[in-house]
User: Fold this.
Amino acid sequence: IKTPSDKKYTLVLDLNKTLAFYNKFTKSVSLRNGLFSFLSMMKPYYELISFSCEPNEITESIIKDIESQKIYFDYHLTREHSILYENTLVKDISLIGRDASKLIIIDDDENCFKLNTENGIRISEFVGNKEFDNALFELKKILLLIYKKGYDDVRIAIKEFSNDIRNKVSFV
Assistant:
């Protein structure tokens, strides 16, 4: 992405099973609890980029449900922007053209960011069950702290918050 952002940090967000869930049988989308609050809260502080390795039908359906007014994401990256690494589609965020010390990727699948593990936050997988899911609420708190503390390198922040991430966001 050649256009520089005026935001200090960039947040790369996976779509399916992270922000929403696409049911292949019913072709319907379930949005994760607190999604719009999360995106609204992050928007002033982070450049927001969606990045999905899913087929275009799934990606487009989720984006349509989230972005009806096109107010949240600055850019959308799709399967075509991923690379094949060890027989797995991977999101190589170094290709986005942003400083790695200012870039965080959120995904339910660690394999998707295995080339940039220090920049990654694994969030628990969302498969449409909203009853007890509060991962985005907890993630929002951590990301706001990272912004407020003004880290020069977000990878240090991710390490510092690793216990909270593991216990409240990843559920590992």
Strands lie at 9-13, 20-23, 28-31, 46-51, 75-77, 83-85, 88-90, 103-107, 120-122. Residues 135-149 form the longest helix (15 residues). The mean pLDDT is 91.
